[in-house]
Design a protein that fits this description.
Layout lengths: L5 E7 L12 E7 L8 E9 L5 H4 L15 E11 L9 E7 L3 E4 L8 E2 L6 H5 L4 H13 L7 E4 L5 H12 L3 E6 L2 H9 L5 E4 L5 H8 L4 E6 L4 H8 L1 E9 L3 H4 L13 H4 L3 E4 L9 H14 L6 E5 L4 H10 L5 E5 L8
Parallel strand pairs: 8-9, 8-11, 9-10, 11-12, 12-13, 14-15
Antiparallel strand pairs: 1-2, 3-4, 3-6, 3-15, 4-5, 5-7
Helix pairs in contact: 3-4, 3-10
This protein binds NADP nicotinamide-adenine-dinucleotide phosphate.
Length: 343
């Protein structure tokens, strides 16, 4: 089957500087491409919008960035329309490396290989809570943090994609959970839906003062999604043998002159603390394990899924911008299409 028609796409323009928006990308119409041996034509259904997508878009091509005219890369839930790949068949839904366009030709490789979405799992869940978002939340809490019941767990961007899942896993592991988030709506969701113990609104409250009140004896674990001043606050309060899970640095990605390091990492010496980077790719082989555990919790209602959906491919740049303005509540996704019967 060969699909004819127009393929709408967002292409890389020049390296992104300043506020993110559609003006930083090029909207393009082209022919739907055809796969050759080892490839497949897919319909992109849902895009996973993630803060790290900004990093290669800020780099000039001569410094290793993406050449202008490249479709903006990203992970997506896709439906296979036509396959010349031995492992994938028409009709299957995959979580795969793809691009900001309606149709893509892919070969199933990328940062990690395409994963088949089990039947009964909706594509938005597969690309969000059960995708890399859930994978890093799951292994970040259960393995990198090495939690013990009753310990105090602090997390930033707690109402975001990774944060909302990690905070709930920590609660399920018997930890006392404090979430830091931007805005009352996010804090309300954390308390009422995610059922964590306390929420700090960093926009209207002083996080240092609230932490002093909430945990005068310090914290055991900090799950870091943003870096910057909150990492410093966590280091100051780390208890003996405390752990810091370095998941991401969203607060630094859009900064033209980022100060990457914490100012007070010597605190780790004073408390025999551990700060460890978490890389989702390391856990790729254990994707099924995390997916099964998360799916079970979601179906039992023990983990509430929070998705922030921008509808339409044309909204993809706006969706990326929402991560850096803090507008997103839950996992930021773009919905392009629903799966359709394959002729
Ligand atoms: N290590 C890995 O393998 C891996 C894999 C996936 C994701 N990650 C990381 O996980 C983190 C969360 O990703 P996500 O997709 O779930 O995004 P997200 O947390 O849903 O969205 C980004 C959030 O970051 C906060 N933020 C934005 N600008 C900020 C700033 N200047 N300073 C402080 N906070 C700011 C905002 O939350 P508030 O309004 O609540 O502050 C915003 O909602 C990211 O750092 C990402 O890179 C790592």
């Amino acid at each position: 089957m060969r699909t004819k028609g127009v393929n709408h796409r967002w292409l890389v323009q020049s390296p992104i500087q300043g506020p993110i928006g559609p003006h930083q990308f090029r909207w393009n119409e082209s022919e739907i491409p055809a796969p050759v041996e080892g490839q497949m034509l897919v319909r992109n259904l849902w895009l996973d919008i993630a803060p790290t997508q900004l990093l290669p878009l800020r780099v000039a091509p001569e410094a290793g960035g993406l050449p202008p005219g490249t479709p903006v890369p990203g992970y997506a839930a896709v439906q296979v329309l036509e396959s010349k790949h031995p492992r994938y068949s028409p009709g299957e839904i995959l979580y795969a490396s793809s691009a900001w366009e309606e149709y893509s030709v892919i070969d199933g490789t990328g940062y990690w290989d395409a994963v088949k979405v089990p039947s009964g799992v909706s594509p938005d869940l597969a690309v969000g809570t059960l995708g890399i978002t859930g994978l890093v939340a799951y292994f970040g809490v259960t393995e990198v943090a090495r939690p013990r019941p009753g310990e105090l767990f602090l997390i930033s961007a707690a109402a975001g994609g990774v944060g909302s899942v990690a905070a709930q896993i920590a609660r399920l592991r018997g930890l006392k959970v404090i979430g830091i988030a931007g805005g009352q709506a996010k804090c309300d969701w954390l308390l009422r839906e995610a059922h964590i113990d306390a929420a700090i609104d960093h926009r209207s409250e002083d996080p240092a003062a609230r932490l002093n009140d909430l945990c005068p004896d310090g914290i055991d674990i900090y799950f870091d999604n943003v870096g910057g001043p909150i990492l410093d606050l966590a280091l100051e309060r780390l208890r003996p043998h405390g752990r810091i899970v370095l998941c991401g640095m969203t607060g630094r990605y859009a900064d033209p002159n980022p100060a990457w390091g914490p100012t007070n990492y010597s605190q780790l010496i004073m408390v025999n603390g551990r700060m460890e980077g978490l890389l989702g790719r390391d856990y790729f082989d254990r994707f099924p394990e995390a997916m099964a555990a998360l799916l079970n919790w979601v179906r039992e209602g023990q983990i509430k899924v929070k998705e922030d959906v921008v509808v339409g491919l044309d909204g993809a740049p706006r969706a990326l911008a929402r991560l850096f303005s803090g507008e997103n509540v839950g996992k930021q996704l773009v919905k392009i299409a629903e799966p359709a019967p394959i002729e």
